[in-house]
Amino acid sequence: MGKYFITGQKKIDGSINLIGSKNSALPILAATLLNSGENIIHNCPDISDTHTAMQILKYLGCKVKYQNHTAIINSASLNKFIMPKNLVKKMRSSIIFMGSLLSRLKKIKINYPGGCSLGNRPIDLHLNSLKKLGVKIFDDQKNIICEAKNLKPNTIRLKFPSVGATQNIILASIFIKGETKIINPAREPEIIDLQNFLKKMGANINGAGTNQIIITGVKKLNNTEHTIIPDRIVAGTFLLAAIITHGQIQIKKIIPHHLPLINFLQLGSEINLSKNTIILKAPKKINPIKKLITKPYPGFPTDLQAQFVSVLSLAHGKSFVQEKIFDARNKHIHELIKTGAKIKILKDNSSFIINGVKKIYASNLISKDLRGGAALILAGLAAQGQTIIHDQNFISRGYENISRDLNNLGAQINFFN
Ligand code: EPZ
Hints:
Layout: E1 2-7, E2 13-17, H1 22-31, E3 38-42, H2 48-59, E4 63-67, E5 70-74, H3 85-90, H4 97-105, E6 107-111, H5 124-132, E7 136-139, E8 143-147, E9 155-157, H6 163-173, E10 179-183, H7 189-201, E11 204-206, E12 212-216, E13 224-227, H8 232-244, E14 248-252, H9 261-266, E15 270-274, E16 277-281, E17 292-293, H10 305-312, E18 318-322, H11 331-338, E19 342-345, E20 351-355, E21 364-367, H12 370-382, E22 386-391, H13 402-407, E23 412-416
Parallel strand pairs: 2-14, 3-13, 9-10, 17-18, 21-22
Antiparallel strand pairs: 1-22, 1-23, 3-5, 4-5, 6-8, 7-8, 10-12, 11-12, 14-16, 15-16, 18-20, 19-20
Helix pairs in contact: 1-2, 1-7, 4-6, 5-6, 8-10, 8-12, 10-12, 11-12
The structure holds ligand EPZ.
């Protein structure tokens, strides 16, 4: 269990280079299984989730090297289709290995990744979609065994634009002769990055980022080199760190339109953009947001909900936030209330009324998930006194070294593992 000791009230003021996107690196690392050769992935973030993904690749028989944010994966020696239980349990998104293992080895055995503190996280959209491609699935609610002997193209309409299910359908259909269509796919930038990676390998895939993706099967894929897009959620977290401390920040190597800039402007920030840089100046007084509802991209991202709630706790007025992507992304609320934030959770357990307060106070907090933990760090930056956050390695799953980065921007954080 790690501990963050944060001395509050220090202004964030400085410039930072953004790291590569966790949620783009993970599916692309899984996709390196497809070509039985070597792929070089640059700007791969040095976080525990990408290391877990690389451990999975190694376990399956691949040769893996990682240095200075570049991963070199050679999947020619892939020799296993049974996923390592302990690693799947550690990282729910290991489910995206299904599609690429089925394409490459025609079978996979994987234990249920299980829910996590965001609520129930079923995989029905993944499994139903794979079945529509002809995958045979044996599922005893503990393990899933899939066989992909005679895959066939199909049109799959997703009832919800699930990011993971979209990725699994793409990876599973890459070699299926004919045309597979995904209607109502996820449109996140990470899906576009996966498409760009696969196209470089020689895949025939188009439409990522729109409401229809078409994959036309090819016979094989080649080795390639790719640079992961910047992490829009890490960027949003640092922008909010500047806002909650009434400071200012310059973030380089960012793709501005990947962020919900309108919501940062609603808080009263001043934003200047140049090609791949954002400069944000915090408002003297943080504005409340009348209604902030999480939606699939390009809507307001669920992965910034917790961090926005921290900032809105200090807004001058009342805000309403509703989490509509996950059914229990609310573990940070109880912790924020300990600091003196005035937040009411409505009966649906996913809507919050936040009455902004003038001050929040240092407390002993427990982080219960990745983005909730980041939200508590933001609260610690603004609280009077020294906040302690107990973290079971959630935050390092998605942030390379958040205390180092924030300290370089003027914060005062000590982290002890
Ligand atoms: C991806 O998770 C991201 N993770 C999440 O980021 C992100 O919050 C989420 O997309 C939504 O944008 C990665 O990319 C590794 P979903 P994923 O399938 O693919 C329900 C972070 O903090 N659902 O779009 O698991 C599901 O329960 C993480 O970086 C089904 O019902 O998300 C949820 O309510 C957290 N059945 C909703 O859809 C399914 O088969 C969104 O899930 C699949 C999903």
